[in-house]
Specification:
single chain, alpha/beta, seven-stranded mixed β-sheet, five-stranded parallel β-sheet, 7 helices, binds NADPH dihydro-nicotinamide-adenine-dinucleotide phosphate
């Protein structure tokens, strides 16, 4: 069984920032990354990371991970199946293999929420998508709808408008809550039309999506549906260990990225931090690594 000072679970911005700092502290560091670069790699452009005026999401994910590796963190691209605490060490299982660590930094991020309506599962990848950046090019000159009223919906509509003939945004309330810059962009784009107080009840088609049924029973013809209704935290492994979660199942951390379990820290979108932003996740990752270093100095040196 290999033993590490710190195991960082999650290969997104928060996890990579944490791993890079741990490596700089000369901690023997192992990072687990199921999706190398994390969810930011599914974002088109990042224009709000201070100091970097403009970078694509995939490039940002890659550069963060490279920075961690070049600083000395080892990486394993498998999925962690269990975290236990045995005496003063954490045991991380990946299938039938185990790794031990003195500290854990948990930065597992989020996964896309699903609508839960009839037809959504059946037409997944047959017209239903959760990633505009990944799939927009398949909808050239088509008519699509983004479902959701947040920042992701606005950003996705912008990306889709570069490829599609027409992009609707279907918003269940009578307002959107996107960042003003992104809201302005969609409102200025002649291809984008926002339909408020509109909810999808069923997604229909034969071999691929052809239309949806709205809450008032009307049929709305569409070639594609991009679901952008927020995310759920990937907190299950932490919850199983006994880490306290809030009612949205996010890992509760304090300002120093500590959880209720000594030596176990949280960082990034999986935590209860109010704003899910790359810069905030990176900051939490750095805080977690400093705290992990302190903890190791006090308890193991
Ligand atoms: P949000 O939670 O902000 O918005 C979700 C939207 O989807 C809301 O309009 C919500 O409606 C709607 N919605 C939720 N469930 C349903 C449903 N079942 N049917 C129809 N509509 C539904 O999610 P986002 O993904 O937009 O953003 C999440 C966070 O990520 C935000 O903090 C955002 O700022 C951030 N973000 C950061 C980016 C970056 O760092 N560059 C990029 C994109 C997002 P209602 O208002 O009725 O609840």
């Amino acid at each position: 069984m290999s033993e590490f000072d710190t195991i960082v679970i999650g290969g997104g911005v928060a996890g990579a920032a944490a791993a890079m700092y741990c490596a700089r502290f000369n901690l023997k560091t192992l990072g687990f990354a199921t999706l190398p670069g994390g969810l930011i790699t599914t974002t088109h452009l990042v224009e709000n990371y201070p100091g970097i005026k403009k970078i694509t999401g995939p490039a940002m994910g890659q550069v963060f991970l490279e920075h961690a590796m070049e600083t000395g963190a080892e990486y394993n691209f498998s999925t962690v199946s269990k975290i236990e605490k045995k005496h003063d060490l954490f045991v991380i299982s990946v299938g039938d293999k185990s790794f031990t660590a003195r500290t854990v930094i948990y930065a597992t991020g989020t996964k896309h929420k699903h609508l839960g309506v009839k037809g959504e599962e059946e037409f997944k990848n047959k017209g239903v998508s959760y990633c505009a950046l990944c799939d927009a090019a398949f909808f050239k000159e088509k008519t699509v709808a983004v479902i959701g009223g947040g920042d992701t919906a606005a950003i996705d509509a912008n990306i889709l408008a570069q490829h599609c003939k027409k992009v609707y945004i279907l918003v269940r309330k009578d307002f959107m809550r996107a960042e003003p810059t992104n809201q302005d962009r969609i409102e200025r784009d002649p291809k984008v039309e926002i339909k408020y107080l509109t909810e999808v009840q069923e997604i229909c088609g034969t071999d691929k999506v052809s239309h949806v049924i709205l809450q008032d029973g009307t049929q709305f013809d569409l070639d594609g549906i991009f679901v952008a209704i927020g995310w759920n935290s990937n907190s299950q492994l932490a919850g199983d260990l006994g880490v306290k979660l809030n009612d949205r199942k996010e890992v509760i951390i304090n300002r120093e990225s500590e959880t209720n379990i000594a030596g176990f820290y949280g960082a990034g979108d999986v935590t209860d931090a109010k704003f899910k932003q790359a810069i905030i996740g990176a900051g939490e990752g750095v805080y977690a690594s400093v705290m992990a270093y302190d903890y190791i100095q006090k308890h193991f040196r």
